Every structure is written in C-alpha cells, then in structure tokens.
Amino acid sequence: ALAAHRFxxxxxxxxxxxxxxSASVFPDVEVPKASYMLLLTWARWGRNSLRIKQExxxxxxxxxxxxxxxxxxxxxxxxxxxxxxxxxx
Length: 89
What we know:
The chain is 34% helix and 9% strand. By secondary structure, it is α+β, with helices and mostly antiparallel strands. A two-stranded antiparallel ribbon has the order 1-2.
C-alpha cells in the first residue's frame, strides 16, 4: 500500500507563502508516494543545479585578471629642514 501525501497551504496563505484572498484557493490534493518522491528528487536536482551554476559563476570571476589600478606617483616626503634663523654676526 502506497502512502499518500496531502499538500495543504497554511491557512490564509497560498503554496508560495504569500497571503491569499481566500483560504480555499487550492483544493486538497492527494499525491501517491512514488510521485511525491519523484517531486522531491526533482526539487533536489534543481537546487543542486542552481548551486553548481552559482559556484561556476563565482569560480569564473575568481580567474578574471582585473587590471591593476594605476597609482599616482607620490611626492617624496622631504626630510625636516632646519628652521631659518636670522644671520649671526
């Protein structure tokens, strides 16, 4: 005997979690165990595929050689000069 799963939205929300206009937007649906497992497998594959694509994008960004910013040549700091004093006679 296959167990059936019932998909019911939370009261006052639809299946994606947004508030719905009425609580009976979606009818009660019984899903056979085999279909339920298949849906869960597809969902897992979809999440894994998305994660792999995101990792590939990040990896590609890590291998791009960005041009180094050119720095202005800084004027050298002059050493302290003696304070000019009046002529000594």
